[in-house]
Fold this sequence. Notes:
CATH topology of the largest domain: Transferase(Phosphotransferase), domain 1
Shape: elongated
Structural class: alpha+beta
Helix content: 25-40%
Distance between the termini: 65 Å
Amino acid sequence: MDQYIGKMLDNRYELLELIGSGGMANVYKAKCHRLNRMVAVKILKSDLADSAEFRRRFRDESQAVAQLSHANIMSVYDVSRNSELEYIVMELIEGITLKQYMERRGQMDWREALHFIAQIMRGLSHAHSRGIIHRDIKPQNIMILRDGSVKVADFGIACLADTTQTLTQEALGSVHYISPEQARGDRMDARSDIYSAGVVLYEMLTNRLPFEGDSAVSVAIQHLSSVPLDPREINPDVPEALELICKKAMSPSLEKRYASADAMLEDLERFRKDPATDFAYIRADLQEQQDTEPTQPIAAAEVVAATKAVRDKQAADAAAEEKKRRNKMLFIILGAFAALLLLIFVIFKIASGFGEKEPDSFEVPNLLGKTVEEAELMPEINGIFTIEVAGSKINPSYEPGQIIDQDPKAGVTRKTDLLITVYVCVEEETEIMPDVLGKKFQEAKVFLNNMQLDLKYIQNTDYSDKYPEGEVMATQPTKGEPLREGDTVVLTVSKGPKLLMPNFVGKTIEEAALTAESMGLIVKEHVLQFSSKPAGTVLEQSLAASAEIKAGDEVTFTVSQGPEMVTYAYEYTIPDQYTGTVQVEFRLDGAVIGNVEVDADASRTGTYTFSGEKGAKAIVAILINGTQEIGEEITF
């Protein structure tokens, strides 16, 4: 049995079962007894915890990641603060990893891949904006929830992996996704995560990795020196624009790669709205990179953590052989290209009669407002330009079937590439707003997005006694109302029943604190105060009864420590008629509080000390030999 099962961490987290194990940590399902909820606890493995430096970096990174709060990042609730065990507490997610999803799903549709990569990049954008780099983006660290939403996991631990200086077989799962600068051991930044995300997108689009190898070293070398097949060569269904986004994210050059997650998100959103969009600037960047920075084989010595055997002869021999092969291939390609140019020139001269030539350029005419059939009959088009319909759009300014957009625009001059891409007007389609009440917010969005109406969303929140927290409780438009392309849908998400502060005055502090913590309140140190109430009774509370509260609010209780007691020294005198030894009895409010035996002949005065509540009044009586001689009221 696992040594930690059943163990209580910091008198709060009870470890129930082992649910995952990795190279650096084990993950347990646990119960938080303070907030009465299930969590996941990740415990650093003992062999790594032996390093003081590793423990320090683990704490620093984990505490930094705990500050992240984003829908696409697995939440970190708590970080260990004792020296006995290093662990972090995270939200417990019901779902599977992206790796498991791809293994079950097989070839993924590019639309689904787009849905996932956009969420991954939103999570990375949030982390990068706060100076945190993941360093280990891979499908195994991406969680897919039941509603189709995505959460990036393993921030904090992954970034410590670079303390290991060997790319061993255990690293093989991660090395498929590392950036070239990471493989070289160079300084990493946010663009390194973008490269890894590009590899994840590549795998989703093609159902294969860009680089394969028998060892971590061989895969790392390919990241540094090889160019993968284009996604469309493997899966022709991938749109060209999405392929270009993937290739730019995976650019080996930091300068040509996306500068930020937000920049990549902008292109993903542009593509989502118009899959036929032309990313000419990406194509130009990639071509410039290919022309000016030809891929050169490198020695495996540049790969961080490569073994000495690979760093020496094997890598050098492989690099030399690869260089010889590439140089030979370059001469063959250049020769073939020159021959092809010569052949084209000869054919062109023959066809043109060695003297007659066509006009140097053609001006693109204005096609807006015309049908495709009308445009093709135009003298400026017929026999010169080819018209290709790229799609359709709704535009109230045009009739259905008319051209509403064209590329290139009218007035542009073209010598080659005599293709005009157009969009035609279609009638506005109206759908009916479906019933999404009771669904989670992301689940409702996925359901509505399947209607292909390019909807926009606004999320509101409100309290509800009917719908549990996180479920959609109201929509605008409401169920059954018209829903058109481009409409904005307002989804109001339940915050659960409204939380009101109970009245704890008169309750014991144990009962009050336990109830308050179960509601998610943070109970601060009590204020103690003398009172006539029994010790431990709540006298006041910093949050008024019936006030609206939320989890995380702080409350301070003023607690009774019982009445304040004072000592009273009562002086008495024995009347002259009493002689010899006498019995003196003291009573307080009629109750006997003491007896003394006094030699009246020796001393007729004395002092008797007793206690009472400060400010209280009482009747003191003195009986001598059974007869009351003195009775008076005193104040403590």
